[in-house]
C-alpha cells in the first residue's frame, strides 16, 4: 500500500509540475499579449503616447522575468547568477558549436528543400517590416535578444528539470525538453525541426553541466543577438536581408 501511495504521489507531483510550467508559459506571454494591444497605437505615430506604452511594456517584461526567475531559484536553489569573463568565453565557445549546427542544418535545407532559412526565421523577419513603428521594432528586438534567452531557458530547461526531472538521468530531460523546445519554433521540414532540437540539446548541456541556468541563457543570448541586431539595422536603414 505504501508503495502505491508513493507512486500516486509521484504522478501527482509530475502533473502539478506540468501545470505549473504551463502556467509560467502563459505568464511569459503577457508581454506579447500586451504588445498586440499596443501595436495599433504605435502605428498611429503618437510618439508621446507610444513612448509611455513602450516604457510600460519594459516594466511588465521586467516584472514577468522577476516573477518566473524568483520561482525557479526558490525551487531549484540555483542562485548563482554571477557572470565572469570566463563564463562569457565558455558560453561563446558553446555558441560557436551551435553556429556550426545551424550552418550544417541550413546547408542541408538548401540541398533538400531549396531554402536557406527556417519558417521560424522567416516569420521573425516579417515582424521587422518597414510599415511597423520604431517602438514596435524595438520591442521585437528586445524580445528576441533579451526576453527569449531568459524566459525560454527558464521555461523549457530550468523549470522542467527542477519540477519534473530532478532525479532523472541527464539525457532524459535533455531529449524531452529539446523536442518540446523545437516544437514551439516554426519548422517547415524535418531538418529544421532537428536543427532546433540539436540547438536545444546544446543549450541544455550548457545548463546541466554546471547546474547554472545563467550559462544556457548566455549561449541563447549569443545565438539571438546577432540576428536581432541585423534585423534592427535592416529596419533602421531600410535594407532588405
UniProtKB/TrEMBL annotation:
Q: Which residues form the signal peptide?
A: none
What Pfam families does UniProt report for this protein, alphabetically? Answer: Rce1-like
Question: Which keywords, in A-to-Z order, does the entry hold?
Answer: Membrane, Transmembrane, Transmembrane helix
Q: Where do the CAAX prenyl protease 2/Lysostaphin resistance protein A-like domain residues begin and end?
A: 138-226
Protein origin, superkingdom: Bacteria
In alphabetical order, the GO MF annotations are: endopeptidase activity
Q: Does the record's keyword annotation contain Coiled coil?
A: no
User: Any keyword Transmembrane helix?
Assistant: yes
InterPro entries in the record: CAAX_protease (IPR052710), Rce1/LyrA-like_dom (IPR003675)
* Listed transmembrane segments: 12-38, 50-72, 92-113, 133-156, 168-184, 190-207, 219-238
Q: Give an example GO biological process.
A: CAAX-box protein maturation
Q: Belongs to which family?
A: Belongs to the UPF0177 family.
What is the name listed in the Swiss-Prot or TrEMBL entry for this protein? CAAX prenyl protease 2/Lysostaphin resistance protein A-like domain-containing protein
Amino acid at each position: 500500500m505504501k508503495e502505491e501511495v508513493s507512486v500516486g504521489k509521484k504522478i501527482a507531483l509530475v502533473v502539478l509540475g506540468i501545470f505549473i510550467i504551463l502556467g509560467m508559459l502563459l505568464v511569459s506571454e503577457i508581454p506579447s499579449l500586451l504588445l498586440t494591444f499596443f501595436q495599433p497605437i504605435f502605428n498611429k505615430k503618437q510618439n508621446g503616447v507610444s513612448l509611455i506604452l513602450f516604457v510600460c511594456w519594459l516594466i511588465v517584461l521586467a516584472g514577468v522575468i522577476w516573477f518566473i526567475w524568483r520561482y525557479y531559484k526558490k525551487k531549484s536553489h540555483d542562485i548563482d547568477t554571477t557572470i565572469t569573463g570566463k563564463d562569457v568565453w565558455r558560453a561563446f565557445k558553446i555558441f560557436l558549436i551551435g553556429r556550426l549546427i545551424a550552418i550544417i542544418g541550413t546547408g542541408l535545407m538548401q540541398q533538400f528543400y531549396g531554402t536557406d532559412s527556417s519558417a521560424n526565421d522567416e516569420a521573425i523577419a516579417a515582424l521587422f517590416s518597414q510599415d511597423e513603428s520604431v517602438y514596435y521594432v524595438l520591442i521585437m528586438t528586445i524580445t528576441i535578444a533579451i526576453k527569449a534567452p531568459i524566459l525560454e531557458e527558464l521555461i523549457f530547461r530550468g523549470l522542467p528539470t527542477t519540477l519534473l526531472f530532478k532525479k532523472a538521468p541527464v539525457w532524459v530531460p535533455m531529449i524531452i525538453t529539446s523536442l518540446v523546445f523545437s516544437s514551439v519554433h516554426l519548422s517547415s521540414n524535418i531538418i529544421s525541426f532537428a536543427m532546433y532540437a540539436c540547438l536545444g540539446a546544446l543549450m541544455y548541456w550548457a545548463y546541466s553541466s554546471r547546474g547554472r541556468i545563467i550559462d544556457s541563457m548566455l549561449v541563447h543570448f549569443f545565438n539571438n543577438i546577432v540576428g536581432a541586431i541585423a534585423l534592427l539595422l535592416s529596419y533602421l536603414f531600410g535594407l532588405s536581408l
